[in-house]
Amino acid sequence: MTTLWDTTGSAVVKELAAQRRTGGAVLSGVALTLVVVADESRVDEAEEAATIAAEQHPCRLLVVVRRQIEAPVPRLDAEVLIGGRLGPGEAVVMRMYGRLALHAESVVLPLLAADAPVVGWWHAAPPERMSTDALAVISDRRITDSAMAQDQRKALRTRAEDYAPGDTDLAWTRSTSWRATLTSTLDSVAGRRGEPVIVGAASIEGDPGSATAQLIAGWLSSRCGCAVGVVETTRTPGPSGVDSVVLQLDQDEQVRIQVDRRGGAVISQPFRPDSTVALPDRSLGDLLGEELRRLDPDEPFSDALEAATGVSGLSDRSPVREHVWFDPADPEGTNGHGNGHGSAGGSRTRKGPAGKAPAGHATARHTAPTVPADSADADEVAEAGEHDEGGTGVTRPTSTRSGAGPSRSGSPARKRL
Amino acid sequence: MITNPLRDPRDRRLPRVPEPCALVVFGITGDLARKKLLPAIYDLANRGLLPTNFALLGFARRDWADQDFAELSRDAAREHSRTPWREEVWEQLASSVKFVQGSFDDDNAFDELAATLGELEGSHGIGGNAAFYLSIPPSMFPTVLKQMQRTRMAESTSDRWRRVVVEKPFGHDLASSRELNALVDSVFSPDDVFRIDHYLGKETVQNLMALRFANELFEPVWNGHHVDSVQITMAEDVGIGGRAGFYEKTGAARDVLQNHLLQLLALTAMEEPVEFSAEEIRTEKLKVLRAISLPEDLRTFAVRGQYEQGWLAGQRAIGYRQEEGVDPSSTTETYAAVRLGVETRRWAGVPFYLRTGKRLPRRVTEIALIFKRAPHLPFADTDTEELGNNQLVVRVQPDEGVTLKFGSKVPGSVMEVRDVAMDFLYGEQFTEASPEAYERLLLDVLLGDATLFPRNTEVEASWTVIDPLEDFWEGTTPYSYRAGEWGPRAAEEMLAAEGRRWRRP
């Protein structure tokens, strides 16, 4: 592990390459890059969860902590670890101060695993509009957690209004075990009857303010075509926010699932004795691990979110966001930075021709002059890092690529033999 | 027809959960049941993969009350479970654990078993579905199966299924396996018979199919034009443990070669199945097994060995003949190696070298494709002295993953090429999070998914390969090798005869 104080993005890239060379065969193949955006107060929690998830899905882990945006001088502190505290893979924890925090992508972009999907996870209050965070724009999948919000229903609505395919939310992940139990219970009813089951109505008792409860209601209503609400109960529901679910079936039958407060739930269904299933609270790492299993858009989630919030047309939206420049210090955009150039540059960082992206990054050029200089250097290092003996500012012509030298000197040597 | 509105094919987070059912285990007090089966059931419950109405029924000779059985199961599950222990999960499971005492020839005991099963149908809502797991020696099969036939426990009807799970060995030669298959199939319908080969439940075996059929890169070279030979190895560092009685009658060829190695060969050599379904995969595997040819010169190309005393992993190991319960002049083999051919257009002329053994230096199972040398090397001879054949190795266990071995330039001003290995390894936790073989197979039985289970015709085709070998070896004495060696010299010579050598796994 190495900690770099007041450093640059290129030094982080270099350090990562150096550790990879000295660290031995610790990494076994990378399936994705996980970018975690966390508040300082939640870094430990996020690191623990990301480590568990990284053990299931080999990934490069980049933790971004944005601190003190008002600090006068931008600064980057970074911790580089390979096969250590943060699991078997490569991990970098970055703390960004001052205006640099608004340009986190300039540090993150050169650190992404080549051609692997990028997953962004906000273990912090996510931006109201994802497009204002360049890290969300470069992510193929974006994970938020509406259950962290003070007003979870409002948070859900915000997510629905801003939704693009590829967005997902841990409040939805928390519903999986409930949904699985409900589904397998209906399987058993259908199996007994030998004919289809129709759900005429459903009701949920629990905490109406819980995002997970709302999403389960939304899911039921999207699947069954009936309105489902969450009714407040006197009992205190667990983290899922659901105390019981009752499904009214055709043929005048009813299915009821009730939390038993011992990590399980009791299933009551017609013609069968009551039975108990495990319905444990899952750790954050476990939830995150489930999210990383699949990286394609989650249509059942968008359907449930639509039904839960009443916002429609979610799955028809474009999965690609354009970066919109947003300065929290200047929310009105009065100093003229809220311009179209920034947005175009941001979106092109991911979708456009690879080489042009950093050059076209208008936002960086405007606000933090030191950063673009560093990131240009970082690309050079990424390509030819081991040949560049710490020569800061030495810009070689791009034609002297690292591969060309040795192979050219190699062939005459062979002829001499 | 959508029978359940909550089932959404796009919703891939929801696990497949079996219908309400009971699992009846014969020989529940045995080693396998305690170390593998019970922990696997707990792990399934802990992961929420057991149906909401589930019952576990144990049948054994010991005189136990339900509580004793629950206690034993709990200890076994707790000691060997893979997932964290949660008492509340076990308690929920324990409430549906029942024990029936009796011997296998006791009519009353089986009547009681049938009655208990009928009771569970009402009290636990298992809907009449049941899987019977025969964790008992094959010699007991006839008795147990006949009892099940008599009590009509084995009959699948339109509103309930009854399945049977059989462990290897599936017979000891073609005739006995036919007999066994005929017996099992007469009691259960062939589709309801699940033969467990836990190797096939390993993630990597399924990954082999993904590697071959989901990629463009490998399939074009996966044939005799590019592959020089294939080596399939299953090595164990352990001896025979306490299984002398079983092993004396069986030997390495029947114990491992006939099932695991031939199944791995079939998966390696098979053509692309029309779809990834049980029936189609079995069809392709069966074609390969039927296309296997034996070498004419069995003396050179079918070698068996027996370990002598030696040193293994820093400890002294006794020889096979000195093991407790083994005949001091035993000719049972603990090592077998054979060269097989697969007579298809894809594989004609490519030797498949299979080997297995006990007390070998380390525990490893792998499939190695050795590629031909490049037809022309534009380098000086001295440049490529250290260049070997390219290899693609699928590691089944341990360190599940894939290795690619190819030539690379040695850094420096001189042109030299030598072999390097590129590894893909599932993360350590990745394998831990991936379901243990038994868990996966048990779940598949309860779901009725037969993709990973060999069919009776496959078993019979495998015996057709093994029987001539056993006939040839009959009455001969195996070559000896020291414990801790990679098998007898004759096995080395077998490959040397064709200018090849074993890869050290």
State the main characteristics:
heterodimer; A: about 425 residues; alpha/beta; 8-stranded mixed beta sheet; 6-stranded mixed beta sheet; 14 helices; 14 strands; B: about 500 residues; Rossmann fold; Dihydrodipicolinate Reductase, domain 2; 2 domains; 10-stranded mixed beta sheet; 6-stranded parallel beta sheet; about 35% helix; globular
Secondary structure class of chain B reads alpha/beta
How many separate structural domains of chain A? 2
Largest interface: A-B, 61 and 56 residues
Mean pLDDT score of chain A, rounded? Answer: 78
Quantity of strands of chain B, as a count: 18
Query: What is the name of the CATH superfamily of the largest domain in chain B?
Result: Dihydrodipicolinate Reductase, domain 2
Using the CA coordinates, give the radius of gyration of chain A: 25 Å
In angstroms, what separates the terminal alpha carbons of chain B?
51 Å
Backbone shape of chain A: elongated
State the oligomer. heterodimer
Weakly predicted, low-confidence segments of chain A: 336-417
Order of helices and strands of chain A: EHEHEEEHEHEHEHHEHEEEEEHHHHHH
Return the structural class of chain A: alpha/beta
CATH topology group of the largest domain in chain B: Dihydrodipicolinate Reductase, domain 2
* Shape call of chain B: globular
Helical content of chain A (DSSP H or I, runs of 4+): 25-40%
Number of domains of chain B: 2
- Under the CATH scheme, the architecture of the largest domain in chain B is 2-Layer Sandwich
Helical segment tally of chain A?
Answer: 14
Q: What's the topology here?
A:
The complex is a heterodimer of chains A (417) and B (505).
Chain A (H helix, E strand, L loop, with lengths): L1 E3 L4 H14 L9 E7 L4 H14 L2 E9 L7 E10 L2 E11 L6 H5 L9 E6 L10 H5 L2 E4 L7 H11 L4 E3 H4 L2 H18 L5 E8 L4 H14 L5 E3 L9 E8 L3 E7 L4 E5 L6 E4 L5 H10 L5 H11 L30 H12 L10 H6 L2 H15 L19 H13 L1
Parallel strand pairs in A: 2-3, 2-6, 3-5, 6-7, 7-8, 9-10
Antiparallel strand pairs in A: 1-4, 4-5, 9-11, 11-12, 12-13, 13-14
Helix pairs in contact in A: 1-13, 2-9, 5-10, 8-10
Chain B lengths: L20 E6 L4 H16 L7 E7 L5 H15 L6 H8 L2 E5 L5 H17 L6 E5 L6 H10 L11 E6 L6 H14 L5 E4 L6 H11 L13 E9 L8 H26 L8 H14 E2 L4 H4 E7 L1 E3 L2 E3 L17 E8 L9 E6 L6 E8 L19 E7 L3 E9 L7 E9 L2 H6 L3 H11 L8 H18 L5 E4 L6 H8 L9
Parallel strand pairs in B: 1-2, 1-4, 2-3, 4-5, 5-6, 7-13, 9-18
Antiparallel strand pairs in B: 7-14, 8-12, 9-12, 10-11, 12-13, 14-15, 15-16, 16-17
Helix pairs in contact in B: 1-2, 1-12, 5-6, 6-13, 8-9, 8-13, 9-13
